[in-house]
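@channel anyone free to eyeball this complex?
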Amino acid sequence: AQSVAQPEDQVNVAEGNPLTVKCTYSVSGNPYLFWYVQYPNRGLQFLLKYITGDNLVKGSYGFEAEFNKSQTSFHLKKPSALVSDSALYFCAVRDPSGNTPLVFGKGTRLSVIA
Amino acid sequence: GAGVSQSPRYKVAKRGQDVALRCDPISGHVSLFWYQQALGQGPEFLTYFQNEAQLDKSGLPSDRFFAERPEGSVSTLKIQRTQQEDSAVYLCASSSRHRTSGGAGELFFGEGSRLTVL
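replying in thread with the prediction:
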């Protein structure tokens, strides 16, 4: 069965500094990988996804993520953090067959300090 | 509507009561998912509909949980004889793609229904 690990409950970063939110996954075969963001009292919003092709994918709000097959990782990155990026970030994985549901990690709370 | 709409946003129930949570997906979306998000946790899959057919209910925690989507649009998640461990945010998501279709369409989530069982 597929699974996702987000090893950090909380990430703190100063505004203007680069940020990284870590994610590792386990799935049979090639994974479909996603990042979602959740602002307070809001639903999850899609940020970006990796299906195939270029290992570096770009998404909304200046975020990007790098797929690393050998390390089974899909870390979320942004070159320069904004205070408004403070939110809860979820990594998710599913297998390409679609016969299993999208599985989410437990989330990482990002706090960007001015 | 413009997005996925869920109601009620907040529900307080006494233990043993039945509750019904409604999801109105994006118009035309064939796939509908229910997830349960406990405090401090990621969303956990409950069930999946393709149009009106419930194709996967492997995540429903007990037979007290029941979901339906009779006309392939609005869905209702019903919890009978609620227990304190049912307290969570229940998220509904929809997608324009079938779950098994090629590619991977992203899910569009509602704001959730927060259930508190006293």
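from a first look: The interface with chain B takes residues 4, 32, 34, 36, 41-46, 49, 51, 90, 94, 96-99, 101-107 of chain A (CB under 8 Å).
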